[in-house]
């Protein structure tokens, strides 16, 4: 019996590329009074990401295009931007998941001072983050002088909010944050939640007092924009609601 067909090498099917138009909101503070839109055509593959398209533009068409990126794998959170009107990470947004029959609009996240192109000043965001004391506070020695033990249930109580990568996608999707620069914002509250409900921490009351403020949790209008925007799938609105309940009824 002939094995000619069985032994024949398998030729992989060629992946077709296509042209994608990106319309990017540009701003150079040295020459521009206001931001403006510029369009770029790039050849892409379905498995490419928006970040890959931005790289092709920067490396092959316009080296002045400015944006942040680091790990390119959805961990560092540095490449959050608005893609077709939604907050996303450019490194996690596949071209094939967008409607490429229309231009792809890319702009900086909202609510933070625009520095250049897709780069915003993150300092107001991190100022709110630092204000909620996002670190473990314990004034007593661990039992037996060793590590502080937690049960599985105690760890699960705050597991969801440990996933935050500080990309600001949630905070910059919040309409309250857009209009009120003093609001702590969802990300700061999420990181406070992570320690408020940590059984090893002894500073929950201080954080609850910080957030029991006009610009704290009570500014949340429960629009769920933050939960939808989070690239890590954190239930942000639920975390904010749990902090509200802790203020009203005590930590549980």
TrEMBL record:
SUPFAM superfamilies (UniProt xref): 2Fe-2S ferredoxin-like, alpha-helical ferredoxin
Domain 2Fe-2S ferredoxin-type: 18-112
InterPro entries listed in its UniProt record: 2Fe-2S_ferredoxin-like_sf, 2Fe-2S_ferredoxin-type, 4Fe4S_Fe-S-bd, 4Fe4S_Fe_S_CS, Beta-grasp_dom_sf, Helical_ferredxn, SDH/FRD_Iron-Sulfur, Succ_DH/fum_Rdtase_Fe-S
Cofactor field: [4Fe-4S] cluster; [2Fe-2S] cluster; [3Fe-4S] cluster
GO biological-process terms attached to the record: respiratory electron transport chain; tricarboxylic acid cycle
Cofactor notes: Binds 1 [4Fe-4S] cluster.
A Pfam family assignment: Fer4_8
Family, per entry: Belongs to the succinate dehydrogenase/fumarate reductase iron-sulfur protein family.
Record's protein name: Fumarate reductase iron-sulfur subunit
Protein source organism: Cryobacterium zhongshanensis
């Amino acid at each position: 019996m002939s094995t000619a067909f069985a032994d024949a090498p398998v030729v992989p099917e060629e992946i077709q590329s296509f042209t994608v138009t990106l319309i990017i909101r540009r701003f150079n503070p040295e020459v521009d009074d206001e931001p403006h839109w510029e369009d770029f055509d790039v050849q892409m593959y379905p498995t490419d990401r928006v970040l890959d398209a931005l790289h092709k533009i920067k490396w092959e068409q316009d080296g002045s295009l400015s944006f942040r990126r680091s790990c390119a794998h959805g961990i560092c959170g540095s490449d959050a931007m608005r893609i077709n009107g939604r907050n996303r990470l450019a490194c996690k947004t596949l071209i094939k998941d967008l409607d490429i029959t229309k231009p792809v609009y890319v702009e900086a996240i909202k609510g933070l001072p625009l520095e250049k192109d897709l780069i915003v000043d993150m300092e107001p965001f991190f100022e709110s983050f630092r204000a909620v004391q996002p670190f473990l506070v314990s004034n007593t020695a661990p039992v037996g002088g060793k590590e502080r033990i937690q049960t599985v249930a105690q760890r699960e109580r705050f597991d969801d909010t440990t996933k935050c990568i500080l990309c600001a996608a949630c905070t910059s999707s919040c309409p309250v944050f857009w209009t009120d620069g003093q609001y702590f914002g969802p990300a700061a509250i999420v990181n406070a939640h992570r320690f408020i409900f940590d059984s090893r921490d002894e500073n929950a009351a201080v954080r609850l007092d910080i957030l029991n403020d006009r610009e704290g949790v009570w500014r949340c209008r429960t629009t769920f924009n933050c939960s939808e925007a989070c690239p890590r799938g954190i239930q942000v609105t639920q975390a904010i609601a749990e902090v509200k309940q802790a203020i009203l009824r005590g930590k549980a």
